[in-house]
Amino acid sequence: MSCGYPETMVEVLLCRQSEADKVEAVADTEGYRLSYGHLFTLASRSARTLSENYGLSESDTAAIAPINKSEALIGLYSIWLAGAQAAVLDPLSHSMDLEMQLRQISPKIMITHRGMEEAHCTVAEKLGIRCITVEELTEKAVGKTPWEGYTRPRSWSPAIVYFYAGIAGRTLPVTHTHSGIAASAHTVVAHYGLESRDRIFASAPISHALGLQISTLAALYAGGTVVLYTKRGRLNPGHAAEALAASKASMVLGAPGFYQAILRAGYRGHSGLRYAVSAGA
Q: Are residues 198 and 264 both part of a single domain?
């Protein structure tokens, strides 16, 4: 199914979710999978929770510290569908860095993952920012009725705020619009000729552009499937090599260190792999 040239990733999801519900959008290496239809349903219901229970609306900012889990995409899309922009934070940020970033963006809410509440919610709540895990947000959404009041963001509206290292020795916020995010995904899809049959293995953290825009959102833009490599603690090269081979990915993106590690662990490619793209440090 052709979606033309969507100018936002929300328009991509709205187009794709009308297809057969069994079309897989995202899977992670811990076994959680979501179809396009299921992703939209849970994200729109979660957006309703953010709107009605937390007062999130257009022109607001919600912070999210995502790890490579399928639920993280529910959290990201729920922010967009509520009309807000997402400040994507590194979940491994030191408490002092996290506090500094939160002070700069003043989010209405912070979304994290179970098991990371102490690291994230303690800092957020000290600043008067409400904090919830994306797993709890998803659970609250299960019993809700479909929400027709979701927002379709304008292409020029801010979509994502990243924090990059600044010349002053501290991280500084950089804002990307919805059209900019969609355009970067479109560029990857067009350059590599990606299609709905493609599976993209995202080894890089989705808290950074390589893992989120260039890997995850590009897969969704193509109508394909993103396979999120869920890393707990330090990289286990053997496990990563096995996960990549088992993913049946046609494309993998990662930093040079990722490739060095899996090659040392004995990975030599797998059937169907067409592209291995290296980027980052």
A: yes
